[in-house]
Design a protein that fits this description.
Radius of gyration: 21 Å
Number of helices: 10
CATH architecture of the largest domain: Alpha-Beta Barrel
Mean pLDDT: 87
Helix content: 40-55%
Shape: globular
Strand order of the largest sheet: 1-6-8-7-3-4-2-5
Distance between the termini: 16 Å
CATH topology of the largest domain: Multidrug-efflux Transporter 1 Regulator Bmrr, Chain A
Structural class: alpha+beta
Number of domains: 2
Number of strands: 8
CATH superfamily of the largest domain: Regulatory factor, effector binding domain
Length: about 280
């Protein structure tokens, strides 16, 4: 996949079908693109999932139409696929925090989403320390959740992490962390149309938790410090917009691995964060 060019083409596709109920899995399958890889790259570059981008762009166009005032609200709602006007009003309120009738008066305060384009800048100096490593498959012991790929975004990953922390499950998991990788591992992979998220530790010990296995691969491992949910996103943007243009390596985004080295407060700007970016073997 030519990363940025493909994402820009897909944004054009979304813009051309802004009013439609897009079957993202079906469209990507027709294009021969693995959904997990696509979702990871799109979200890293755009800052939201394709579905979120479509909804925000649709609501932005609706806001412009409401402000222009050339058509009745019911006609605008139907044009954009909302045949239940009350449901449309609720969706609009959720998107902007106001009713459609308040749009003209509060237009300047709305959080509108304009069409996204990219400026790609080749990297001259590394922004994050990194190293290459060949890592064989290992077992992760932890908690597993499955999400609809269309609805999934990275916020759910950190909401799940916070839930485990609040309920002292992370402390329990760390007792089983006898593998060579130390810290909390967040592992995502695409299975049968869904996103499987595992949060756990590298372990060979018997435990009451669920388990999964990573893929053997060559990785480039980036490390930084900061609030994990923000820092990991910034590292992914760096990888896709800058790093891989200089390195010219094929990125394997069929699964994702992040390792949190801090063992307690995962909202601290002093947390150590690693992103393991898998690479396809060089020919």
């Amino acid at each position: 996949m030519e990363t940025v060019n493909f994402i820009e083409k897909f944004i054009i596709y979304i813009e051309d079908h802004i009013r439609d109920n897009i079957d993202y899995d079906g469209v990507l399958d027709d294009m021969g693109v693995e959904p997990k890889s696509f979702i990871t790259i799109f979200t890293s570059l755009v800052g939201m999932t394709p579905y979120e981008y479509q909804v925000k762009r649709r609501m932005t166009e609706i806001a412009y139409e409401l402000k222009a005032g050339h058509r009745r609200l019911i006609d605008i709602a139907k044009y954009y696929g909302y045949y239940d006007v009350d449901a449309f009003k609720r969706a609009y309120q959720k998107a902007f925090g106001i009713s459609p009738y308040e749009t003209e008066r509060q237009m300047d305060a709305l959080d509108l989403t304009e069409r996204i384009s990219f400026e790609v800048v080749p990297v001259d100096r590394p922004k994050y320390p990194s190293r290459y490593a060949r890592i064989e498959s290992f077992r992760i012991t932890g908690a597993v959740r499955t999400f609809s790929l269309q609805d999934y975004d990275s916020r759910m990953k950190y909401e799940f992490l916070a839930y485990l922390e609040r309920n002292n499950i992370l402390d329990e998991l760390l007792r089983y962390n006898n593998g060579s990788t130390k810290g909390i591992i967040m592992h995502e992979r695409y299975i049968d149309g869904d996103m499987e998220l595992t949060i756990g530790v590298a372990s060979s010990l018997e435990s009451p938790f669920q388990e999964t296995y990573t893929e053997s691969s060559e990785f480039v491992i980036f490390e930084s410090q900061g609030i994990p949910s923000v820092t990991a996103q910034e590292i992914y943007q760096y990888i896709f917009r800058r790093w891989h243009l200089k390195e010219s390596r094929d990125l394997n985004c069929n699964f994702s691995i992040e390792v949190l080295k801090s063992q307690r407060d995962f909202t601290s700007d002093e947390s150590r964060v690693q992103v393991w970016q898998a690479l396809y073997a060089e020919n």
